[in-house]
Amino acid sequence: MLPETDGASGPDLEGLARRAVAGEARALEQLCRELQDLIYRLALRFSSDPQAAADATQEILILVITHLAEFEGRSKLTTWVYTIASRYLLRSVRGPVELSVAGPEPFADWIDDNLAAESAGGHDEAEYRLLAGEVRLACTYGMLLTLSRPLRLAYLLGDLVGLPDVEGAAALEISRAAFRQRLARARTIMRGIIADRCGLVRAEHPCRCDRQIDSSIAYGILDPRRPVFSTLPGATAPIPAGTLAAAAHELDLATAIAEAYRSGPDYRAPGDVWRALQQACPALTG
């Protein structure tokens, strides 16, 4: 699976931006619809909180709309949007989900201490698959919260979105050298948690998502009656762990870790984001 950069076959976002600035309401609406999902995916990975991500997406889109005339075309429009999004996310209030993650060492210790000796029982096959998938998503998204905010954004933009260092540095308004240093540091931290643990990236590693189901339920991380990630718009079954591990075995560990994230659901912004945006900016969204 390739990084999530926008392809040449996609819509002409820069052209839509020019038409929107010229006063074409339909172009502005199409532009916002094209941007809302990539903003939401970044915000969701940043916060691991769907409601916080939806709220952030709305606010970031409003900032994009109100500052669109300032886009000078010296970079891709998506890079400019990631700059606005990164500024907002870095300054946003830390929510309870983010505050609940103490750091990489406690996170790794929790995984080790709560790994069951065998797979969870007492669930039918469909529920079992759903719960294992929910654990996988909660764990991988939660793991991102072990990174400091600056490192987290560098990792998200560099390894998951797939921006080259020139664009990543521009989005974070830092030098290319600083961006590479942050990305390297983030990879080191992620590697420290996953190395010798996660069966998603190496088949021989001991941790399996289904062996964390019972402990996740016991600690309130997972509610079998109200799964968080598996019910979001765009949620589909992640690539099976065995298939992913087999493919990841051919990759270096840093790439394999990023692949574990990119193989997850291709989330879309909830419909509430668009409805709230229309209420906030009725004259702009038509």
Automatic annotation (TrEMBL):
Task: Kindly give the Gene3D superfamilies that the UniProt entry links to this protein.
Answer: 1.10.1740.10, Winged helix-like DNA-binding domain superfamily/Winged helix DNA-binding domain (1.10.10.10)
Q: Record's InterPro entries?
A: RNA_pol_sigma-70-like, RNA_pol_sigma-70_dom, RNA_pol_sigma70_r2, RNA_pol_sigma_r2, RNA_pol_sigma_r3/r4-like, WH-like_DNA-bd_sf
Q: Look up the domain of life of the source.
A: Bacteria
Q: Which UniProt keywords apply?
A: Sigma factor, Transcription, Transcription regulation
Tell me the ranges covered by the RNA polymerase sigma-70 region domain, including all copies. Answer: 33-94
UniProt entry tagged with the keyword Transcription regulation = yes
GO terms for biological process, alphabetical:
DNA-templated transcription initiation
Return one GO MF term.
sigma factor activity
> Into which family does the record put it?
Belongs to the sigma-70 factor family. ECF subfamily.
Can you name this protein? RNA polymerase ECF family sigma subunit
Source taxonomy: Bacteria, Bacillati, Actinomycetota, Actinomycetes, Micromonosporales
